[in-house]
Amino acid sequence: MEVRGELTGSMTGLLVKLEKGKAHSWAEITDKGYIRSHDPKGDTLYVVDIAVKPRFRQLGLGHHLMQAMYDVVIHLGLKRLLGGGRIPGYHKHQNKLSPQQYLDQVVAGELQDPVISFLLRAGHMPIGVSHNYLEDEESCNCAPLMEWLNPFYQEKDNGIY
User: Fold this and answer.
1) 155 CB neighbour count, 10 Å cutoff
2) Which residues are 16's β-sheet partners?
3) Overall number of domains in the chain
């Protein structure tokens, strides 16, 4: 994404087919970031990365990037958009809350987390917490898996929707 010719943000995704509830790490799902694990027949658009330069973060660019991914999911007839969200505020609560308890409190609005609160506002819902997801001190290496379901998705039946 550009603003007046300046690169302000980007988002990367790949298609995957995941077994429901199968735990994974960012390195496993993205082939250590090389994205050689892309499956053109996948039913899930997996968010590899989303970034917006700090001075542009209050302009809603992240929402525009996310909306573009929703459009791709709908256009391709995919089941969902999925990704692991960092929980950069978790390290401040790790002595009294498990990652799941922290996530539950963010979902309930009792705590704010810059990444998870953004994803919740964007319509994503948590489907679990992955431990050892990504080397990240602030998140204590944990990441909630956040999902947006395509409201127009229909199971394929002999190639016809």
Assistant:
1) 7
2) 44
3) 1
What is the helix (H) or strand (E) element at residue 74, kind and residue range? helix 61-76
What pTM, to 2 d.p., does this model score?
0.89
CATH classification at residue 85 = 3.40.630.30
| CA atoms of 129 and 119, how far apart (whole Å) | 14
Please report whether residue 161 resides in a domain. Answer: no
CB 83 within 8 A of CB 18: no
**Mapping DSSP to helix (H, G, I), strand (E, B) and coil, where does residue 58 land?**
helix
Radius of gyration, CA atoms only, the chain: 16
Q: Residue 30 sits in which domain range?
A: 2-149
9-55 residue pLDDT tens: 999 999 999 877 677 999 999 999 999 999 999 999 999 999 999 99
Residue 111 C-alpha from the chain's centroid? 19
Residue 138, CA distances (Å) to 45, 87, 92, 105, 112 in order:
26, 7, 8, 17, 14
Specify the residue for token string 């700090």: 54
DSSP-assigned states of every residue in 84-149:
E---TTGGGTTTT--HHHHHHHHHTTSS--HHHHHHHHTT-EEEEEETTSS--TTTTT-EEEEEEE
Residue 40, φ and ψ in degrees, nearest 5: -55, -20
